[in-house]
Amino acid sequence: MSIDATATVVLGAVLAVSATLIAACLWDRARAVGRTLLTFLVVLLLSVTCALQLNRLTVAYPTWSALVGGPSREVALSSGLRTRPGGGRLLTVTVPGRASGLTLTMGVYLPAAYDTPEGAGRRFPVIEMLHGYPGSPSTWVRRLKVVQHLDEEIIAGRMAPAVVLLPYQTPKRLLDTECTNLADGPQTETFLTEDVAAYAADHYRVRTDSAGWGLIGYSAGGFCAMNLALRHPHRYAAAASLSGDAGPGIAVGDGSENTTNNVAWRLQHLPQPPLSFYVAWAADDRESRDGSRAVVRLARPPLRVTAVELPSGGHSHALWRRMESPALDWLSGQLARSIPIDR
Amino acid sequence: MRLTGFPLILLCGAAAVAALVSTVRMWSRGGRWRPLIRTVACVCAEVLVVLTIGLVVNRYQSFYPSWQALTGSDAKQPIAASPRMAGQELPDFGSAAGRWHLAQAPEVSVPPDYTARTGVAFPLLLVLHTAADEQAVRAAATRTPDVVCVAITPAAATSPADVQAVLTEVRRSVRISDHGFAVVTDRSHRGLADRIGAPVTTTGTGWPATLAAAAGTLPPPLAAPLQP
Q1: Residues in chain A with pLDDT < 70?
Q2: Of A316, A323, A335, which is closest to B69 when you measure between CB atoms?
Q3: Residue of B74, B76, B181, B211 to mutate, interface with A, max A Cβ within 10 Å
Q4: What is the mean pLDDT of residues B70-91?
C-alpha cells in the first residue's frame, strides 16, 4: 500500500476510530498512566491520518522509504505509471551536483520521438518542471498527471517533442528553498541552473543554447520559474508560472528575498531581459493573484508576457491540471525546435 | 455559506466546542451503551476539531476558495483554439512589387507538406536579398523544412513599414504562427533588417546553410494550442 494511496488514509482513519473505541472501553479500568497512553494513541493516530492526507495532496513524501531518506535516492517515479502507445517514457536518475554540492533525484521524460531513428540524430528542446512546496517531482507525475498531458499535447501536435526534466528543488523535504541559494544553506539555484543543465547535456541529446530551454512551475515552482529565468536569461528563453507569486515568501538569508530574488523588484529595478513569460492564476487565489498581477503590470519589452486569469479555482491541483496543457503548448511555441545533432 | 467565510468557521468551531463539552458531560453516562456513546462523541469532536483547523488554514491560504473549487465542479476542460483553416492556397503577389516599394514581387515558399498539414501554423522566415540572389534564395527556401519563407528584394525606398505591410498581407492568407519570426539578410540589407524588430541572421556561408541555421532557432510548426 503506497503512502499516498486513498486506502492508506482510510486505514489511518479506521485505526484512529478503533483506538478511540478501545480508549472508550478501557477508560474506566485504566489508571492515570493508562489513560494518558490511550489519549496519546488516539491523538497520534488522528495526527498521522491528517498528515497522510496532507501528504496525499502534496506528495512531499512519495514513498514510505522517503520518510527516512532524503530526495537523493528515490524509487522510480514511473512506478505504477502506464505507458501509452505513442507516448514518451519517464526515467528516474540521480544528478550529482558538482557545482552545488547537492545530489538529488530527477525525473526525465523522453518523448516518443526521442527513440525513433529520426530522433536519434537530433537534439531536443528542454523543459524544466519545478514543483511547489511542499511537494516533489512525484506531485507532477501523480497529482498533475504530467506524463499524460505531455503525451496528449505532443501526439495532438500542439506541443513539440521535448525532453522534460523534473528535478527536486530542495534537499530536505520540508525545507522550502524557493529555488534560491540559501545563505549558509543548500545551493538549489546552482543545482537547478548549472548541475541539472550539465547533467542533461552530458546524458541526453538536448539543445544546449538558451533558445531551447524553458521553465514551468506551479505555486512556489511558478515563482521559481520566473525568478530563475530572470536571473539566468543566458540559459532560458521562456518561463511559465501557474499560480506563482512575485516573491519567494522565505528568508534567503542575505536579504535578497526583497531584492535580487524578488521578481517584482527585479522588474522594477533592473533591465528586463528578452524573455517570454506565461503568467496564469485564479482570481480567487489572493496571494498568487496579487503577485501575478504585479508581474504582468511591471513587465516591459523586451520581456513579453502572456497573462491568463481564470475566475476561480483557488490554489489547487484541479486548477493546475486545467492550466498545465495550455501552458505547455504556449511554452513549446516559445522554444526553438529540435536540430540535427551535428549543428 | 461560503467555504472561506467566518460564519462557517465559527459554526464548525462552536460545534467542535459543543462536541467536546458533550463528550465530557456524557462520559460517565449511558449505562451499557457507554463505550459506544463515548466513541461516537469523541469521533464527532475529533472530526469537528480537524475540520475547523482545516477551514482556518484554507481561509488564509486560499487552497479552495469556493465549494466549486473544492469539489472540482468549476474545473472546465481546456478547449483547443480554433485551428487556422485558411491558407490552403498561397497568395500570388505577381505584380505587387510597387505597392511596397520593392524591387521585385515578394515570393512565398511553404514546406512541401504545407497543404496536407491542415490547421498547423508555421514559423516565419523573412529573407532580404538582392535580385541577383533570387534563384539561390528560392532554392534554399524550398529546402528549408517547417518554415514559411517570405523572400523580399528591397529597393532603396523600402522601409520597415513596407516590409511589415508585406508580412501582414502574407499572414492574411498563409498559416503563420504568432510565435517564431526571424530575418535572414545579406549584408547590403542589414540596416533595414535591424529595424524590423526580429532576431537577425546575416548570411555568410551561403543561403542554404544560413536559412537552415535560422530555422533552427525557431519553434516547430504547431497545431492551435489549448485555451484554459
Answers
A1: 70-74, 343
A2: A316
A3: B74
A4: 68
Instruction: For residue A324, give its domain range.
Output: 72-340
The number of angstroms, rounded, from the C-alpha of A122 to the middle of its chain's C-alpha atoms is 27
Residue A171's CATH number: 3.40.50.1820
* A17, A151, A305, A329: best to mutate for the B interface, most B CBs within 10 A: A329
The verdict on B208 touching A (C-beta cutoff 8 Å) is no
Beta bridge mates, B184: B127, B201
Q: Which chain A positions have a beta carbon within 8 Å of B27's beta carbon?
A: 27
Do the domain assignments include residue A130?
yes
Residue of A nearest to B80 (CA): A326
Q: What is the pLDDT of residue A234?
A: 97
Judge whether residue B87 has pLDDT over 60.
no
Is A174 contained in some domain? yes
pLDDT at position A206: 98
Looking at the structure, do residues A30 and A131 belong to the same domain, yes or no?
A: no
- Check CB contact under 8 Å for A158 and B64: no
Place of cell 539555484: A189
Question: Is residue A64, in this structure, part of any structural domain at all?
Answer: no
Chain A residues closer than 8 Å to B225 by CB: 158, 326, 329-330, 333
pLDDT of residue B136: 92
Q: Please report residues of B whose CB lies closer than 8 A to that of A159.
A: 222
pLDDT in tens, B136-172: 999 999 999 999 999 999 998 899 999 999 998 888 8
Chain B closest CA to A80's CA: distance in Å? 24
- The model's pTM is 0.90
Strands (E) located in chain B: 79-80, 107-109, 120-128, 148-152, 176-185, 200-202, 222-223, 226-227
What confidence score (pLDDT) does residue B178 get? Answer: 84
Same domain, A122 and A186: yes
- The average pLDDT across B45-54 equals 94
In a domain, A66, yes or no: no
Same domain (yes/no): A213, A306: yes
Q: Would you say B177 and A333 are in contact if contact means Cβ atoms under 8 Å apart?
A: yes
- A14 in the same domain as A40: yes
- Which residues have a Cβ under 8 Å from the Cβ of A44 and sit 6 or more positions away? none
User: Do the Cβ atoms of A333 and B68 come within 8 Å?
Assistant: no
Distance set, CA B92 to CA B108, B174, B178 (Å)? 8, 11, 22
Grid cell for residue A212:
531551447
Question: If you ran DSSP here, which 8-state letter would residue A129 be given?
Answer: E
Q: What is the mean pLDDT of residues B190-216?
A: 86
Q: From the CA of B84, how many Å to the nearest CA of chain A?
A: 13
One domain for residues A76 and A48: no
Contact B34 A24 (CB under 8 A): yes
**What value does the mean pLDDT of chain B take?**
87
Same domain, A323 and A259: yes
- Give chain A positions within 8 Å (CB) of B146: 337
B227 — pLDDT class (breaks 50, 70, 90): confident
In this complex, which of B36, B61, B219 lies closest to A332 when CB atoms are compared?
B219
Nearest C-alpha neighbor of A230 from the set A202, A198, A256, A204: A256
